[in-house]
Design goal:
Strand content: 15-25%
CATH superfamily: Alpha/Beta hydrolase fold, catalytic domain
Structural class: alpha/beta
CATH topology: Rossmann fold
Strand order of the largest sheet: 1-2-4-3-5-6-7-8
Number of domains: 1
Shape: globular
Low-confidence stretches: 178-191
Number of helices: 11
Mean pLDDT: 89
CATH class: Alpha Beta
Largest sheet: 8 strands, mixed
Radius of gyration: 18 Å
Order of helices and strands: EEEHEHEHEHHHHHHEHEH
Distance between the termini: 19 Å
Number of strands: 8
């Protein structure tokens, strides 16, 4: 396993509306294309295992959502209209229909692509992904009282809600690290400790983060996401709790779902709901694994798209 934040190709393109979109490519550039969507927060600068990607003959493509990394913000971005950016990219690269993997907070964006692009997205993978917040029983209750207050304000007074969420997300700083509500009173003493605190779901993730080079790659990945400050993270936060405009039951492609049984970032009930509501799914559960399991199992995950 060799994670890296150093892509084979790192490029930008100009979208039809004049915005810049940034993307990276990894692995076998003449191989089968697979798209990986980063989490919340994150950036294009992460390949979970470059050796496994090459061995599988995969051309991996990663994308900065608007406001992250080098992709210009889009103030009216939603999960569904972000798919327009994705279409422009795959047209620019002349990609055939190809699978999409959404890791963590990238999962609902993969679902949006599957919903809108049935002819161009043959299958998707959801790795440690939440379901759509408004659909999953108990998901709103997992937010703190402060978080639920922000959601309620957003739905009652959108402008005031966006302003309040923007203030809240200022905790997402220049190093790309962010502490959720319940952790702020326990801010870690340094960057390395804070990364562990934010990402770890327990012993399995702690062991992974201790591997040589892992924290450095993750720092680069998260830090690049914060290049423009919190603007991309704000939009992800809003998308996470906004009314979706589609349902997981509308997704007709095969959906591969992977979870770590010890993941405290995205609890098991999200995967159970996805399996229950999406018509065609496969589920792989990794015992004793946390939220960062794709770093250890990336080669196995890519086999789903062989």
């Amino acid at each position: 396993m060799r994670a890296t934040a150093s892509p084979t190709l790192d490029r930008t393109m100009l979208l039809a509306d004049g915005r810049t979109l940034a993307f990276s490519e990894w692995g076998d550039l003449g191989g089968k294309p697979v798209v990986l969507l980063h989490g919340m927060p994150g950036s294009r600068l992460m390949c979970p295992d470059i050796d496994a990607t090459r061995a599988a003959g995969i051309r991996l493509i990663t994308i900065d959502r608007p406001g992250y990394g080098l992709s210009d913000p889009r103030p009216d971005r939603t999960r569904l209209n972000w798919v327009d950016d994705y279409v422009e990219l795959i047209d620019h690269l002349e990609l055939p229909p190809c699978p999409i993997v959404g890791w963590s907070g990238g999962g609902p964006y993969a679902l949006a692509c599957a919903y809108r692009l049935a002819d161009r997205v043959p299958s998707i993978g959801l790795a440690g992904s939440p379901g759509l917040t408004g659909e999953v029983p108990g998901a709103l209750e997992d937010f703190s009282a402060e978080g639920r207050g922000l959601i309620d304000l957003l739905h009652r007074d959108r402008a005031a809600g966006i302003e309040a969420i923007t203030r809240h997300c200022q905790e997402y700083g220049g190093d790309g690290l962010y502490l959720p509500f319940r952790f702020r009173a326990h801010r870690a003493p340094n960057r390395t400790a804070q990364t562990r605190f934010m990402l770890s779901s327990g012993d399995a993730d702690d062991r992974l983060l201790a591997r040589p080079g892992m924290l450095e790659a993750i720092h680069d990945w998260l830090g690049e996401g914060a290049r423009q400050g919190s603007v991309g993270f704000v939009r992800d936060w809003i998308d996470r709790v906004d009314r979706e405009g589609f349902s997981t039951s509308d997704v007709q492609q095969v959906v591969h779902i992977w979870i770590g049984e010890a993941d405290r970032q995205v609890p098991r009930y999200h995967a159970d709901h996805l399996v229950k509501t999406i018509p065609r799914t496969t589920l792989t559960a990794y015992p004793r694994e946390g939220h960062l399991f794709p770093f250890d199992h990336w080669g196995e995950m890519l086999e789903a798209f062989a």
